[in-house]
Automatic annotation (TrEMBL):
PANTHER family: CUB DOMAIN-CONTAINING PROTEIN, INTRAFLAGELLAR TRANSPORT PROTEIN 122 FAMILY PROTEIN-RELATED. It comes from the Eukaryota. Residues 44-114 form the CUB domain. Pfam families: CUB_animal. InterPro entries: CUB_metazoa. This is CUB domain-containing protein. It comes from Lepeophtheirus salmonis.
């Protein structure tokens, strides 16, 4: 995850909720990039994810990537609105996306329970 920051003090708040009592721990690594140094994996401003190279795998947060069928229990995290950016590679003028898993029902969009009602 890439977050834009200013020269001032930056405060990040993570709101993680669960209906079940669980114990979780995280290791968070913070890396600072020089302004304009997009190729150091930071990407242009506003990009939460930044992909480089001619091949790779793109996935959303909290969405299964190994299932052969997108089930009704699969859901995206709510209230996500972010940009995924791709660097144009030298000598390339187009981009092509394909499902990582072959077969029917391997790509899907989820609807939140509130939106489905």
């Amino acid at each position: 995850m890439i977050l834009d920051a200013s020269d001032e003090c930056n405060v990040l708040n993570f709101n993680i909720g669960s209906s079940a009592a669980t114990s979780r721990s995280w290791t968070i690594k913070a890396t600072q990039y020089t302004c304009g140094d997009y190729d150091s994996l930071g990407g242009p401003p506003g990009c939460l994810q930044y992909f480089t190279g001619t091949t790779g795998k793109i996935s959303s947060f909290n969405y299964p990537t190994s299932e052969t069928t997108t089930t009704t229990s699969s859901s995206h995290l709510s209230n996500q609105c972010y940009s995924i950016c791709f660097r144009q590679e030298a000598t390339k003028c187009s981009i092509c996306f394909a499902s990582a898993i072959a077969g029917q029902n391997t790509f899907g969009l989820s609807v939140s329970p509130d939106a489905a009602a």
